[in-house]
Amino acid sequence: MIKNILVLVFYPQEGYYRIKRSSKLWEALVLILLAVIVRLVSIYWNHYPLNPVDPRFTNLLLEVLTVIVPIISWTIAAYMITSITDGEAGLLDYMKCTAYALIPYIVLTIPLAGISRMLSLSNIGFFGFAQGLIFLWVGILLYLQLMALNSYTPSQTVKSVLLTIFGIACIWVVCVIIYVFTANIIIFARLVIQEIQLIFYT
């Protein structure tokens, strides 16, 4: 696992080949768990004036979902898009490689939170820039993931990234529609039950 991380950091495409061939699913699950832990720790350790999230009003379940949902969404959307555009990777390959793409976030977020405790509100621009670089690095690794796993050219990869992002948006829209529809059905069922109770017990 450590060797795969080192190879991925310094030689991303070779790293993804290694991850696809030899990594196990448990490694991906461990990395995702670490990403969740890093997210929660950073919320409470970031210097308060620089913290985009107020720890006093943090919903821990929601914060966990902000890590897990994008990972699952990217994995599913990337697999669906590339499977219809001559892709070569399976769903588990995407899950494992996406988890490994979180390495910059896992490794750098906590040190950045520690540095933030030495900064003031006037340094919020630097803090935001540093956070942006971490997410940019993760984004580059996701781009290289699609290229390496499917032997795509740069232009094919850009097209797949854009389609994957569109696919994620579609997944989220569908989930919201299902949630709203289900909530309305539950509300309607409760009203019907209340009406029946009023009829028979009054």
Characterization of this structure:
The chain has 202 residues and is mainly α. It has one domain (2-201). Helices cover 81% and strands 0% of the residues. It contains 8 helices and no strands. The protein has helices at 2-10, 12-22, 25-45, 60-83, 91-100, 103-116, 124-150, 154-201. Helix 4 (60-83) packs across helix 5 (91-100) and helix 4 packs across helix 8 (154-201). The longest helix is centred in the C-terminal third of the chain and has 48 residues, at 154-201. The N and C termini lie far apart (67 Å).
Task: Give the SSE map.
Layout: H1 2-10, H2 12-22, H3 25-45, H4 60-83, H5 91-100, H6 103-116, H7 124-150, H8 154-201
Which regions are unreliable across 5 or more consecutive residues at pLDDT < 50? none
**Can you count the helices?**
8
Distance between the termini: 67 Å
What is the CA-atom radius of gyration, in angstroms?
21 Å
- Give the class from helix and strand content and strand pairing: mainly alpha
Order of helix and strand elements from N to C terminus? HHHHHHHH
Task: Report the principal-axis shape.
Answer: globular
How many DSSP-defined strands? 0
Largest sheet: none
Percent of residues in helices comes to over 70%
**Residue-averaged pLDDT, rounded?**
87
Q: In percent terms, what proportion of residues is strand?
A: under 5%
